[in-house]
Automatic annotation (TrEMBL):
One of its GO terms (molecular function) is N-acetyltransferase activity. Keywords: Ribonucleoprotein, Ribosomal protein, Transferase. It comes from Flavobacterium terrigena. Pfam families: Acetyltransf_1 (PF00583). Residues 2-147 form the N-acetyltransferase domain. This is Ribosomal protein S18 acetylase RimI. Gene3D superfamilies: 3.40.630.30. It comes from the Bacteria. GO terms for cellular component: ribosome. InterPro entries: Acyl_CoA_acyltransferase, GNAT_dom, NAT_camello-type.
């Protein structure tokens, strides 16, 4: 696997992000516009993963506060799941964020994304109260990890 550090203007990230948004339409239902507003933002810290020159996964982070990075846009193409790509991306995002001095990580996901939640739990994330724009959103769970 090859991984590149880039930003959200990267065409391969945009391609995967569009696939992710399509996937989320059924999951987010009536709240899809709410989530799209917060997901379709400029991101300066994006990872894109390739396997045999094919784009297979992505993820990003952005500053939440002085010590915390928010993990965003974690997605693995459906044809490439169950290969450890998501864990690889998450680990690389955390390492990259550590280079900026971030020592904790937060994220938001859907309670319906059980495999994603299982990955986060296996890698040390714990459920927290919903933060920021996710407070009071029933179709949302938030998690945190302190390194």
């Amino acid at each position: 696997m090859k991984i590149i550090r880039t930003n959200s203007d990267n065409p391969d990230f945009k391609k995967l992000s569009a696939l992710f948004d399509e996937y989320l339409v059924d999951i987010d239902g009536d709240e899809r516009d709410f989530f799209a507003f917060y997901n379709n933002v400029q991101l300066d810290n994006v990872l894109v993963v390739y396997e045999n020159s094919e784009v297979v996964g992505c993820g990003a982070f952005k500053k939440f506060d002085e010590n915390t990075a928010e993990i965003k846009r974690m997605f693995v193409h459906p044809n490439h799941r169950n290969k450890g790509i998501a864990r690889f991306v998450l680990n690389e995002l955390e390492n990259w964020a550590n280079e900026f001095g971030f020592t904790s990580f937060i994220l938001e996901t859907s309670p319906k994304l059980t495999s994603a939640i299982a990955l986060y739990e296996k890698t040390g994330y714990q459920f927290i109260q919903n933060y920021g724009q996710y407070i009071g959103v029933e179709n949302s769970v938030c998690m945190k990890k302190v390194k």
